[in-house]
Amino acid sequence: MRHLLDTRTLDRATALRILDVAEDMADTQSRQVKKLPTLLGKTVVNLFFEDSTRTRISFEAAAKRLSADVINFAAKGSSVSKGESLKDTAQTLEAIGADAVVVRHSASGAPQTLATSSWISAGVVNAGDGTHEHPTQALLDAYTVRKRFYGDASRGRDLEGLRIVIVGDVLHSRVARSNVWLLSTLGAHVTLVSPPTLLPQNVSLWPAAVEYDLDAALATGPDAVMMLRIQAERMNAAYFPTEREYSRLWGLDAMRVAALPETSIVMHPGPMNRGLEISSEAADSARSTVLEQVANGVSVRMAVLYLLLAGERNDERGGAQ
Predict the structure, then answer these.
(1) Is it the case that residue 103 has pLDDT exceeding 90?
(2) In which region does residue 74 sit, left (phi positive, over 0), alpha (psi from -120 to 50) or beta (all else)?
């Protein structure tokens, strides 16, 4: 694996390989000493042009537990805020010898530009680009679903036949895009639930069903319900009448959770708008995997960095993404 830029082009075998390696990484994290010497001498740069405490900390923990040197680069207060280009920044990272660059950027396609340029030879991991994709979030979500339903028998298993409902602000959500592509590749049946105003125009081309009525979607008995954050910071128009109206029609509350099958799980990529897309009762219930997703994120990102830098990358220089 040379780079990880999206899930749309991620094939089933590679996705399962990442999830299975993440299982191995998770096993090491239950030990008293969690650190592995696997990436000793490697340098991982977290290049974040957008704020993100949760994702940056997760990648930092993953790299450090593999014994890599970590450099955290935040655009605010840096040369980027003074007008330095992506190319100049990339060439700086190349000069200091970065082996992997984890990129979060407000512009869709920025990680792809970095990976396909001649500016840098490091492996590139997309940590979220604009409203495009967030592949490691989808991988940790798939890992969480697989672990909940198959437990210790997860290795090698896909999600064939599982029904997953994704609810909320699909229009602005890179998490939704990455999940739709990955979950469908792994065999799950995906249904998107959203107000019409919060669906992208090309949603009919996605491998997912579309529903506007949350209660109707939940009545089908889904195995997992994934709530999406309302991204007010990306909205410059009124996409729904009021927050109260949105919560009433598309929010997951205690009553809706109680109506789900006993085995159904409740997911959220975080951070949550409690009382808007999800109630505290739903977020804190025994069905909720919110904290599991955070913990699983470290194992999945350890797997991605391992496969980029120590696993297959040395055999695939110049190979496929």
Answers:
(1) yes
(2) beta
Indicate the domain borders of the chain: 12-134+294-315, 135-290
Q: Distances in Å between the alpha carbon of 310 and those of 38, 99, 209, 285, 303? A: 7, 11, 39, 39, 10
pLDDT for residue 240: 74
- Contacts of residue 229, defined as CB under 8 A and 6 or more positions apart, other chains included, come to 168, 169, 173, 268, 269, 270, 271, 272, 273, 277
The DSSP code for 197 is G
Query: pTM higher than 0.85, yes or no?
Result: yes
Least Cα distance to 6 among 105, 118, 139 occurs for 139
Taking the domain 135-290, which CATH number applies? 3.40.50.1370
Task: Report the C-alpha gap between 138 and 141 in whole angstroms.
Answer: 5
| pLDDT tens readout for residues 311-320 | 644 444 333 3
CATH architecture of the domain formed by 12-134+294-315: 3-Layer(aba) Sandwich (3.40)
Helix (H), strand (E) at residue 245 = helix 243-250
Neighbours of 53 (CB within 10 A): 9
Q: Is 18 exposed, middle or buried (0-12, 13-18, 19+ CB in 10 A)?
A: buried
